[in-house]
Amino acid sequence: MIGSLADLARAAGTSVSTASRALSGHSSVNEQTRARIRSLADQHGFQPNQLARNLRLRRTHAIGLILPLGHETGQHLSDPFFLSLLGHLADGLTERGYDLLLSRIIPMTADWLDRLVDSGRTDGVILIGQSDQQETIERVAHRYAPLVVWGAGRPDQRQLTVGSDNMGGGSAAARHLIAIGRRRLLYLGNIAAPEFMQRYEGFRQAVAGAGRGVTGTALELHMTPDAAYSAITAYLDTHPAPDGIFAGSDVVAMSALRALTERGLTVPHDVAIVGYDDVSLAAHTIPGLTTIRQDLVAGAAALIDILFKRIAGETAASVMLKPELIVRGSTVA
Length: 333
Description:
This protein is an alpha/beta fold. The chain has three domains: 5-48, no CATH class; 62-165 and 296-322, Response regulator (Rossmann fold), CATH 3.40.50; 166-293, Rossmann fold, CATH 3.40.50.2300. The chain has helices spanning 5-12, 16-23, 31-43, 50-57, 80-95, 112-117, 134-143, 166-179, 194-208, 225-238, 250-262, 296-311; strands at 62-68, 99-105, 124-128, 147-150, 160-164, 184-189, 215-220, 244-247, 272-277, 290-293, 319-321, 324-326. The strands form two sheets. Strands 2-1-3-4-5-11 form a six-stranded parallel sheet, sandwiched between helices. α5 packs across α12 and α8 (166-179) packs parallel to α9. The radius of gyration is 25 Å and the shape is elongated.
């Protein structure tokens, strides 16, 4: 019975190191010997100890996928944007022979990211969002190369990021609302987190550039569906309804659609709505949701490409994706 690499080497009449190199396809072992050792292994159902091999190579063949929730502790992994990006990342990592180690982190101490990257459990880390943890991410990125972030890019930052042009997307949303005749605009979203701050800034600049007669205000809220719905409902109880809404995410836009409909306001006749992300559900709301699309297929591929370049010790650069306005029934009757 062959139950170890040593057993396989004895059966093949080779050294343990030769048997190991043969199984890994190393060119130092001739093809005839490699074929003989592989055939013996197949006949006896022998599988090399991948964990031991990884330890020798100092590789885990796992990538950490981390969702830090410093500002949105109620955020769930079931969020449709996160699930979509997770699916594309899982597919891409599997194609490279890597496993994915998923963690939802509520940062309680300043060293939360240090402990993750120093744990030895992964060969690299992908962060989904920066939350309010920019200082921590920048500090760790200074010393830990295989770290890449889905989030907002800035010229002066050390961390490598992949994300859409959030300011451009926010501006496109506001300009679309203005172009269809809306004058009392409202931004819905979290303004503290970098991505959403940039989306709001793009919205604000577009409103400021529209001239007299166009106003824009902001309702800062948590981005989970229930929290967003409650905040929008409370706002509508005490303020006149806007005639145009830009929501920082599709989830918030859908919460706004629900709150407006319950008050007898029609979309888009009374209030036009633009979301952000273009999650799969956005096309299936009633009416369909106009939104700013982020190309998550290209985004996931860029995250993986940058990460593996850094694992290999190569240089890499941040990537900014071009957002696209997708017009549906929530702004066009």
